[in-house]
Amino acid sequence: MKNGERLMGKAERRASRERLKQERLKAQQRAKRNRIVGVVGAALVVALVVVGGGYWFLTQSTTGDELTADLPPQTLQEDGSIVLAKSGAEAPVVDVYADFQCPACKQFETAAGSTLQQLAADGEAIVHYRPVSIFSQQPDPISSNSLRAAAAARAAADHGKYVEYNDILFKNQPAEGKPGFSVDDLVSWGEDVGIDDPAFAERVEAEDKVVDTYTGDYTKDLMKKAQDELGTNELSTMTVGELIAWGDDNGVDGSFMDGTYVKETLEATNAAYARYSGGDKFEGTPSIYINGSKLGNEAFNPQQLKKAILDASPGEVDTKPLASDDGDAPAAPEADAPDSGDAPQTDESPDAKE
Question: What are the TM regions of this chain, as residue ranges (predicted)?
């Protein structure tokens, strides 16, 4: 009996030692995984990060010059872009392509937005804001957030408040994949920047209906028909504007977007892809150009960006100012929605695909 007890005691001790060995091994493995995660995480902080077709480079310098002067005049252009420049300024032209749902664009604005505004106020830069939507074919709510914000910013430009509204949109950017930029918030932020004309709220509400139609049945029907008739390979080479034009010619009516800021945004996105080539090719947001030449990571460092601008020659804006209409903002569109049985017609409008 005693021999049996001794044998059992040895077996238990061996089992206990084996359990301790396994626990130490697991602890070592956990520590190793944590070290790997830590190294990868640290590497990502200094890496070039691709976000929604755009890029950013997180540098140690993330704050730009504080704006110490009043904003210079902001002039709405025929294509819906906005030029911020001191009257009579002869300076480099800085084109800023951004999507309000793009996290990298928010990073750029946080780092360098005030620097650009100060350079414009000093007459040392002509800042050309060119809002686009690279997310218009992404799943909702990313697509609707992007388009709704862009249309609202365009409406703010009608009231001379694009730059101020641009800033407040980025400060309130929703997390990717989360609903945001609600109509109520968009209207309220307009009031915050000094827009008290009821036409602004009316326009925001009308464009929201267009966004709903665009991101709903229209995009679904357009993509299905294009997939069936064109195939994946050809479809992958088409821009949003090309896809919409193809749909108009093949039974997917996009006329509900006519006259809307949603369509204007999509057309601006399409134009950006067509405007540049080679090393300056537009591939996503944010994209920053000085006199038509695309910047790299230095765009995200305020000091490097400022130096690049000050070292450049004067440039020329490639758009024309929108003719004034006695200061009145354009009326909200009353476009017809696509036929859908007995569904009521609404003021809707969208455009689509990257």
Answer: 36-58
